[in-house]
Amino acid sequence: MILKKYLINEMKIRTFFILLAISALLSNSLYSMNKITQSCIACTPVRALVAGGQENVFTICQTKLWKYVLNPNQHYLGRGLLVLQRHIPDLEQLTDKEEQEFIQWRRTLTPALKTAFGGRIVNLLYGTNLAFRETPPNPHVHWHFIPRNESKVTFAGQIFHDTEWASVFDLSKKDNMALEIQPFQKAIMATVASYLKKQLQDDKSSLDVEFIIEHYVDDKLNTDKEIECKKD
Ligand SMILES: [Zn+2]
Fold this sequence. Notes:
Blueprint: H1 2-39, H2 47-50, E1 59-62, E2 66-70, E3 80-84, H3 96-117, E4 121-126, E5 142-148, E6 153-155, E7 158-160, H4 183-202, E8 210-211, E9 229-231
Helix pairs in contact: 3-4
The structure holds zinc ion (ZN).
Zinc ion binds near residues 40, 43 and 140.
């Protein structure tokens, strides 16, 4: 009798620990799933802004596979990010379609950014390094497009000086940077959009681009004539 009672108690204790382990595993995996959606700004839907939210105010345009976003740091005038519309950590996991469309974006963005701001070259950077400052790291595939300009440029009331011209870019430079969107950033976005549209037309591109910026940038900004772009 005593042995039977002991065995029953033993089973209860074991069952308790097994259930505890299962619940810990479940909550851990839910935590990681939650962390991915919570901590990845690149995954925030661009429509949040159109619906009156404050997210992704820097998104200029998108296709189903990629979106092009202005970098709030405009030390390099026109600098932006081409962000995959899917949360994967590495280029190796791109589908053939995503890879092929990246080439189309690169062919369109590079000449459009050069023409828009009078730059000589556009540097491309694939990094995701900053994601590894967090534990666990949660990188999201994106490319930096960094127009480089030999001359000092005055644009929408700001002076842009590529002090690293003829050298590698310096991502620690933070002049002309604002996280709360400013009129000069809207003007840059409108200019990028108008030159991208022209490039897509000139190339008879098959990229199906939706211009998000048109939902909130004043129409008057979306013309070349009202934008001052002087070279020193
Ligand atoms: Zn993401």
